Amino acid sequence: MLQQTRVDQGLPYYERFVIRFPDIETLADASEDEVLKMWQGLGYYSRARNIHHAAKTIRDKFHSQFPEQYENILSLKGIGEYTAAAVGSFAFDLAHPVLDGNVYRILSRYTGNTAPINKPASRKIFLTTALELFDPEHSAEHNQAIMELGALICTPAEPRCNECPLQGSCDAFHKKNWNELPVKILAQPVKTRHLNYLIITDGNCALMQQRMKKDIWKGLFEFVLIETNQTVADFSSLCENQEFRTITKSFGKNMILTDTSKISHKLTHRILEIYFWVLRVKTLPAKLNLAFPVEIDKINHTFALPKPIENFLVTYNFHEHVS
Ligand code: SF4
Questions:
Q1: Is 76 inside a domain boundary?
Q2: Is any ligand 1 atom within 6 A of the Cβ of residue 178?
Q3: Contact present, 24 and 55 (Cβ < 8 Å)
Q4: Helix (H, G, I), strand (E, B), or coil: what is residue 151?
Q5: What does the pLDDT look like over 202-237, one tens digit per residue?
């Protein structure tokens, strides 16, 4: 609850919650609707579902006793490594250091480590440092101290180095470069690409081509593609596109639009807005630039396809829209 809200705001929720669900079994036996109702107003309802799910796991798998081993704590839904280390050390003195953004910042400054903290590979580096500096005899105090240090002293801007107990051995303090640490690599802005697939078909076959350029999906097969800088609002706008005119000029008036479909597909740094334009023609040419006709029913079994095209073919009823 306190990940959601300030203590003074969260306290009434907490008190109501523990009165209604005073132990693990009562919480586990309650309906999800009731748990959500008790959570109402706190937001992030997945956390309420997780706590309910975790209570059921504790009831069914751990005989209603909160697990005391790190791996078992970590196995509960909604508990990640940070929470497992915090709960494990505070409640059971388990020797697991907490590691989150605050701790990364302290470790990076204290040791002068320039590994970017938002790169997944850096986690291992910082975990090694955290373990080296960890005091397993006083795990709860150590974790509490580093959490407090990150929240109150070694803050992102203007750390209070003069009040910091680590000052004497802190690399960043000596080099006066605390403001350069921790290092973060800039996230690439998410770009949107607009892919217009022309499904040029005679009802039996459709034109397909292979992606040859150095780009996403290189080597995979796709329908005839026109990439545009922005959304193509409607078919008449598409007809004004020069590339579209060139590709389709040989079909003349024999080409009709029978259907359109749009999906969004997310890649790591890209959003693909994919439009499928189903274009019925009388006869397909043996070749159109790089494209060639393929029996529609065989496309999915015969060719390696980008996921969105594969999904489209699985769900789209060609015969209904094209025949
Ligand atoms: S001395 Fe300053 S930079 Fe170093 S850990 Fe303490 S607060 Fe952070």
A1: no
A2: yes
A3: yes
A4: helix
A5: 999 999 999 998 888 988 999 999 999 999 989 999
Sequence-ordered strand ranges (E) for the chain: 191-201, 205-210, 221-228, 256-266, 270-280, 292-295
Whether residue 201 is found in the same domain as residue 318: yes
C-alpha 161/C-alpha 159 separation (Å) is 6
pLDDT at 39: 86
How many angstroms is it from 176 CA to the middle of ligand 1? 10
Query: Are 155 and 236 in the same domain?
Result: no
Whether 102 lines ligand 1, by a CB cut-off of 6 Å, is no
Does ligand 1 lie within 6 Å of residue 161's CB atom? yes
Domain of 136: which CATH number?
1.10.1670.10
Q: What range defines the domain where residue 140 resides?
A: 101-180
CA distance 155 to 161: 10
Domain boundary among 180, 210, 239: 180
Nearest-CA residue for ligand 1 atom 1 is: 167
Instruction: State whether 200 and 176 are in the same domain.
Output: no
Which of 158, 161, 175, 181 should be mutated for ligand 1, with most atoms under 8 A from CB?
161
**Residue 109, ligand 1, Cβ within 6 A:** yes
Q: What pLDDT band is residue 54 in, cutting at 50, 70 and 90?
A: very high
Return d(Cα 112, Cα 114) in angstroms, integer.
Answer: 6
- Name beta bridge partners: 279: 200, 257
153 within ligand 1 shell (Cβ under 6 A): yes
Look at residue 80 and tell me if it is in a domain: no
| Residues 134 and 42 occupy one common structural domain | no
Q: Let me know if residue 293 belongs to a domain.
A: yes
pLDDT at 323: 62
Domain count, the chain: 3
Residue 87 covered by a domain: no
Do both 175 and 197 map to the same domain?
A: no
| Ligand 1 and 150: CB distance under 6 A | no
Does residue 232's CB lie within 6 angstroms of at least one atom of ligand 1? no
Alpha-carbon Rg for the chain, nearest whole angstrom, is 29
Give residue 320's pLDDT: 76
| Whether the predicted model's global pTM rises above the 0.70 cut | no
Answer with the one of 180, 204, 224 that is the final residue of a domain.
180
250 token code pair: 């040989």
Ligand 1 centroid to 86 CA: how many Å?
22
Residue 155 predicted with pLDDT over 70: yes
Pocket lining: 106 vs ligand 1, CB cutoff 6 Å = yes
